[in-house]
Amino acid sequence: MSSSAESPPALAALEAELSALTRDGLRRTRRVVDGPCSPELEIDGKRYLAFASNDYLGLANHPDLIAAAQEGAARYGVGSGASHLVSGHSRAHQMLETRLAAFLGLPRVLTFSTGYMANLAVIPALLGRHDAVFADRLNHACLVDAAILSRADHHRYPHLDLAALERQLAQSTARRKLIATDAVFSMDGDIAPLPELLRLAETYDAWLLADDAHGFGVLGPQGRGSAAHFGLDSPRLILMGTLGKAAGVAGAFVAGHATMIEWLLQRARPYIFTTAAPPLLAHALLIAIDLIEQGDARRAHLMALIGRLRAGLDAACWPLRASSTAIQPLVIGDNHETLRVCAALDAQGIRVPAIRPPTVPTGEARLRVSLSAAHSPQQVDRLVAAILALT
């Protein structure tokens, strides 16, 4: 080990770049949470009213899910021990995939450990060189990374600009094509026009991959998600959903035509070469799907809270983006001003995360207000009053 007090050049370069992140208001920090996910959190030893999770139905600390996880651990242990294709695919995993397929009304489902992994699996398994991905410019990072990893041509169209997308599709001579979009955009909360996107997929012989991380459990009849919200059914549709947001547990799934799912099972590297998620989680998720299916009252309460927040902040000097979902972005613009407002709310015991580039475009830093069915109207009113006092 070197005894020199000076940093090696490679470390010195990193230190300079970290200093630049701090200067530009872009450096991120972790904060330690004690206790379960809840509207009221203890963070770094201080109590907060939190609008910072994706637990949209308030299931992450539901007693039935805790009991199911404990039962799953007693039945299956705490680890799967191997990948799904070796010896890690348990009865719980199989039951969850069957249950999800029936719930979604789609032919077949494949489960993954995370949504990021699921998207990294789909696009490179279906596309390669001489193929093309057409992606909304505000897609989640995992869709961007998956497109790059596939080595297909990567075309990005302006957010929700269907005319630009159609021009790109019409000009493409790619062997295979795939349109990739968030179904509910994670930082803006708006919903993609999936029927129109599917029409373009059918016209130009393309797949449509919809990342429904923020729609599953919340939108559509009985929380079946964005595709059900629009009543879509097509063999071209590939639906990815996560199980750690509205479902309250962890993991993800890809659903669609049985042949496409079988191809992923055979060729998707993040599926083949990853140890399967603990079966106890799949066991708990069987109960989570029941709670989602029976969760109309939770969804109605959530929608009422969204309306209450939007009405209350109508007079704020910072605009809320047009969103009818649980994601309510309050766009402030400047990175440092956004951090100032975030800190001012922190000082009042209210936690709303500051979102800055590269997660959002430059000049569009914001507070990302995340609502949950576990919030009360009084808690939303407290947030509204605190924000209005800062404007």
Automatic annotation (TrEMBL):
Substrate binds at R28, H140, T359. Transmembrane segments: none annotated. It is an enzyme of class 2 (transferase). The gene is bioF. It catalyses: 6-carboxyhexanoyl-[ACP] + L-alanine + H(+) = (8S)-8-amino-7-oxononanoate + holo-[ACP] + CO2. This is 8-amino-7-oxononanoate synthase. Its cofactor is pyridoxal 5'-phosphate. GO terms for molecular function: 8-amino-7-oxononanoate synthase activity; pyridoxal phosphate binding. Pyridoxal 5'-phosphate binds at G115, Y116, S186, H214, T242. Catalyzes the decarboxylative condensation of pimeloyl-[acyl-carrier protein] and L-alanine to produce 8-amino-7-oxononanoate (AON), [acyl-carrier protein], and carbon dioxide. The modification N6-(pyridoxal phosphate)lysine is found at K245. Keywords: Acyltransferase, Biotin biosynthesis, Pyridoxal phosphate, Transferase. It comes from Candidatus Methylophosphatis roskildensis.
